[in-house]
């Protein structure tokens, strides 16, 4: 048991070390994560479509949200395990979100990275990660298995 726990701790430490070395290679550090979150959500607030959706939910709670997002991105980038939230549940409760808004979110994220990322590789890493998470959020929020049912598809085709 103790040996298993020690082996697991060593495994986790190895993952963390590799993630940190990779981020260092890309030029990503904690100061960049802070800058990314501050800049991106500053632009979100000024965005015609994204701004009102975030504001409606986060009015008076922005500092908490920014702190949570910094913890989230640090956790994902450096594999620190410090973020313990539930993104799917958090988004299910956001009013006024539609599928196309995720494309706008990603476009704004890309533009922000183009302006401030320390390297193109860093921009690509953040973008690929955000796209993967956005895809899983979209599936959780909007996917309707009934639309994949061949019986239903036939129904729609013959209508
Ligand atoms: C149209 C796209 C999106 C909208 C409108 C949106 C909106 C929001 C809002 C309003 C919150 C705060 C929920 C609350 O505290 O009550 C939130 C939380 C969060 N969002 Fe998004 N979001 C979007 C896309 C994304 C994407 C693509 C990611 C990941 C790359 C993401 C990651 C998160 C995380 C980690 C939280 C914190 C969840 C928690 O632990 O409470 N969001 N989002």
Explain this structure.
The chain has helices at about 1-25, 30-45, 50-60, 60-80, 85-90, 100-115, 120-140, 150-159. The protein has about 160 residues and is mainly α. It has a single domain (about 1-145), classed as Globins (Globin-like), CATH 1.10.490. It is globular. The mean pLDDT is about 90. It binds protoporphyrin IX containing FE (HEM).
Write down the domain tally: 1
Level-1 CATH class name: Mainly Alpha
Query: Which percent band covers the strand fraction?
Result: under 5%
Unreliable spans? none
Structural class: mainly alpha
Radius of gyration: 19 Å
Termini separation comes to 62 Å
Tell me about the biggest sheet? none
Write a concise keyword list for the protein shown above.
159 residues; mainly alpha; Globin-like; 8 helices; 78% helix; globular; binds protoporphyrin IX containing FE; heme binding; oxygen binding
């Amino acid at each position: 048991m103790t040996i298993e726990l020690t082996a697991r701790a060593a495994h986790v430490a190895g993952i963390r070390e590799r993630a940190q070395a990779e981020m260092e290679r890309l030029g990503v550090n904690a100061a960049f994560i802070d800058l990314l979150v501050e800049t991106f959500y500053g632009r979100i607030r000024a965005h015609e479509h994204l701004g009102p959706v975030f504001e409606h939910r986060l009015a008076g709670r922005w500092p908490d949200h920014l702190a949570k997002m910094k913890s989230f991105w640090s956790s994902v980038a450096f594999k620190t395990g410090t973020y313990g939230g539930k993104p799917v549940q958090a988004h299910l409760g956001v009013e006024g979100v539609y599928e196309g808004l995720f494309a706008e979110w990603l476009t704004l994220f890309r533009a922000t990275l183009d302006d401030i990322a320390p390297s193109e590789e860093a921009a690509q890493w953040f973008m690929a990660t955000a796209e993967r998470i956005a895809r899983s959020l979209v599936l959780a929020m909007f996917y309707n298995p009934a639309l994949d049912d061949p019986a239903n598809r036939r129904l729609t085709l013959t209508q």
